[in-house]
User: Which sequence fits this backbone?
């Protein structure tokens, strides 16, 4: 028997419904992506992503349908009201959308819909910024501290709101500063175990490593790569920002070279976007911490966005699998289960 319609359900709630049932639903989401693709038989289709603060989902629109025309002609970043039925394809949530229209701007504003549609960091942006500035003040080397301060002051407003990625990790408003501060915390905890790593240089590199993303990405509601990002990428753009700040503050050439190398190598592998492989103690340290926090950021997002009645998250491309989201049972819970 068909279940009753789910009205204005969040993405997480929809994904938490019984997958064996095809449940009708109606809700409002942000159009995050609409990519035109070609099937093996030559026919065109759209891969569409809709989302809110709790998560997102993809579905396919086939050519010569009203839904295809709507999403083909509707700009990314639009707020849309959709009706459909929950379905799964290859164990992934992929609903069948039957109707869609654009929510008028006056309705979006009067009902404050964007508050529930734009994912943001769960941490306070102002608190993160103050903590970051404290980290900068702890850099003892005058030239490195001045270089970091220069780069941050040039991009302060953007740094507070920029996402750290489009889809992989910390891919939400304020994700960049959250990711950066987490890395600085990790540096303070781990660097003392590796005295070969220069603390000031490593901390400077961690703070500055993703500066180029502020030029790579654009868009207030939906993050996408802009012209500079497509043509040059954040590694090159970040190198230019850091080099300019270092030259303006007359950072000695040996340290400037090492700082620039951290920026160029922090992606870890050439196939991941690094310009070169890490070849200094500080560059290896930064790239490994960056990879750790990126992976754990994916884990944290999976834990936050998966409904409480599910055992595993959706497939996480950056992790190559799913995440067990159920909490570890306490000793008391285990004893109770054994008694039962």
Assistant:
């Amino acid at each position: 028997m068909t279940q009753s319609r789910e009205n204005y359900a969040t993405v997480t709630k929809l994904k938490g419904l019984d997958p064996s049932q095809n449940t009708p639903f109606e809700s409002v989401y942000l159009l995050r992506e609409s990519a035109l693709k070609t099937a093996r038989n030559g026919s065109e289709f759209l891969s569409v992503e809709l989302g809110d603060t709790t998560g997102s989902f993809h579905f396919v629109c086939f050519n010569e349908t009203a839904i295809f025309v709507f999403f083909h002609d509707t700009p990314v970043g639009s707020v849309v009201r959709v009706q459909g039925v929950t379905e799964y394809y290859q164990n992934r949530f992929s609903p069948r959308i039957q109707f869609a229209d654009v929510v008028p701007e006056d309705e979006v504003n009067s009902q404050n819909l964007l508050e529930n549609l734009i994912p943001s960091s769960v941490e306070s942006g102002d608190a993160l910024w103050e903590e970051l500035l404290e980290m900068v003040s702890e850099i003892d080397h005058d030239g490195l501290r001045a270089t970091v301060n220069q780069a941050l002051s040039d991009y302060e407003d953007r740094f507070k709101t920029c996402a750290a990625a489009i889809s992989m990790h910390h891919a939400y408003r304020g994700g960049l500063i959250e990711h950066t501060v987490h890395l600085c915390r990790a540096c303070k905890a781990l660097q003392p175990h590796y005295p070969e790593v220069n603390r000031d240089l490593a901390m400077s590199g961690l703070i500055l490593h993703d500066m180029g993303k502020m030029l790579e990405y654009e868009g207030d509601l939906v993050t996408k790569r802009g012209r500079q990002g497509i043509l040059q990428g954040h590694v090159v753009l970040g190198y230019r920002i850091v080099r300019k700040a270092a030259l303006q503050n007359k950072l000695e050439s040996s340290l400037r070279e090492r700082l620039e190398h951290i920026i160029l190598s922090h992606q870890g592998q050439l196939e991941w976007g690094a310009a070169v492989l890490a070849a200094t103690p500080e560059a290896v340290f930064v790239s490994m911490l960056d990879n750790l926090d990126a992976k754990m950021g994916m884990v944290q997002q999976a834990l936050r966005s998966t409904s409480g009645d599910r055992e595993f998250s959706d497939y996480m491309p950056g992790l190559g699998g799913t995440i067990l989201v159920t909490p570890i049972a306490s000793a008391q819970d285990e004893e109770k289960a054994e008694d039962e």
Remarks:
- The chain is about 45% helix and 15% strand.
- The longest helix spans residues 281-305.
- The chain has a mean pLDDT of 89.
